[in-house]
Amino acid sequence: MNRLLKIVSLASAMLLVAGCSAGSQETSKAGGTAPPVVLRIGTDDQPGRPGADQIEDVAARVAEATSGTLTIEPVWQAAGVGADDWDQVVARMVVSGELDLGLIPARAWDTEGVTSLQAIHAPLLITSNELLGQVVSSELADDLLAVAALENYEVSNWAKPGHECRHNLLYWGQHDYLGFGCAAHSHMSGRRWWNLRTPERYIAAVTDGTTTEAAGETLDAETRRLEGLQLSLRTKDGVPTDALDGDALDGLVEQHGDRWVLTRHGRLMANEVSVRLR
Q1: DSSP assignments along 111-178, one per residue
Q2: What is the mean pLDDT of the chain?
Q3: What is the C-alpha end-to-end distance of the chain, expressed in Å?
């Protein structure tokens, strides 16, 4: 997918973030139409560069698609001229509300087949390995996703309240599930197993009528108990207060009723906290 298509994809996310519907117009009390919504998008580009032409083209398409009710206004070189950390500056301008959106060069997601964060309605496109590392290893990610009204319900997962991934919740709650296909994992009553990894071996086993299971294990009660605490610690539900000496982990956990829950900083240190479980 070329860069223009990536930007077009981001424009779709803009409509969602702005709460606008293409082609709709609101009528003011005076009987006319309400002024258009203007979204300011920060970029390191400047007029005359190829990227700038594409941004302007997308802005024109958005204006046409929304009959002028939504306008994309580029803020060229939003972080200033020659700023080494311009991507981070633009991102924080989005968080603070100084900008509505940020267009950040992003190649890391391409390797995973992801070309925008449209799926989670986040007002940011990330496309550099360096930036990706900075975002996921800092509190910036939480700030950005909070702007989009997403709640961090597990260390590495955000969702709008009521829209949490039920598939993943099964894993974190140690519930039963069946996996179908090569390399799929399953769990049933404390036993978990996984299928043959390669498609060729999996298909051959199905064709021959032999087992597709590659290996498995049955957890003893103590291992399962501790693993359950480790999984629960990662979620917003946390763990019972008797499972952790939270007073010795100042700033990493906070008490919510009869449970210890990771703080925002604690979520970045979840593995270190989990080794203290008892």
Answers
A1: GGT---SGGGT-SEEEE-HHHHHHHHTSTHHHHHHHHTT-EEEETTEEE-TT---HHHHHHHTT--B-
A2: 77
A3: 49
Locus of tokens 């975002």:
135
* Angle of the 50-65 helix axis to the 3-18 helix axis, nearest 10: 40
Whole-number pLDDT of residue 43: 85
* Coil vs helix vs strand at 252: coil
Q: What is the dihedral of CA 134, 140, 145, 148, to 10 degrees?
A: -120
pLDDT over 70 percentage in the chain: 72
Domains of the chain: 3-24+34-149 (3.40.50), 163-179+219-278 (no CATH), 185-218 (no CATH)
The helix-helix angle for 140-147 and 129-136 (nearest 10°) equals 90
Bridge partners of 262, per DSSP, are 253
Give per-residue pLDDT as tens, 176-210.
999 999 999 999 999 999 999 999 999 999 999 99
pLDDT digits (tens, 9 = 90+) for 37-64: 888 888 888 888 877 887 888 888 888 8
